[in-house]
From TrEMBL:
UniProt record similarity statement: Belongs to the mitochondrion-specific ribosomal protein mL43 family.
Molecular function per GO: structural constituent of ribosome
One term under GO cellular component: mitochondrial large ribosomal subunit
Pfam families: L51_S25_CI-B8
Protein name listed in UniProt: Large ribosomal subunit protein mL43
Gene3D superfamilies in the record: Glutaredoxin
């Protein structure tokens, strides 16, 4: 995703194993769909890295110096491409869990409403 017209994903690293069965989808992706993905995203640096004897994964390195790693073990080439597209479309911010469902700058003076309220 772009923020103010600048794509946030700077580099995508595709790590795979030459002979591992869990890397089959990544190897097929590199032969068939990765060149088209590179051409359609010229702002993105795509690097392939051989890691022997380990499960494949995608690493996204963002402009705000955050990194995200997604395991793509035993996935089809279409699923791996979808994961790469999700990494490209995200901003790279850390996920923050909210304490409540409703966030406001000015909380109610009267208190929160509940179904057990008796008037």
């Amino acid at each position: 995703m772009s923020q103010r017209g600048v794509w946030q994903l700077k580099k995508l690293v595709v790590s795979y194993c030459n002979w591992g069965g869990s890397s089959r989808g990544v190897r097929e992706l590199m032969e068939s769909k990765l060149p088209a993905f590179k051409e359609s995203n010229p702002q993105l640096e795509v690097e392939t890295k051989h890691i022997g004897g380990q499960h494949p994964h995608l690493e996204g390195i963002y402009r705000n110096k955050n990194e995200r790693t997604v395991c793509v073990r035993n996935m089809t080439p279409e699923e791996v491409l979808e994961c790469a597209t999700k990494l490209r479309n995200s901003l790279g911010r850390k996920v923050v869990k909210l304490k409540t469902r409703h966030v406001t700058k000015h909380p109610s003076v009267q208190g929160t409403w509940t179904t057990a309220l008796k008037l």
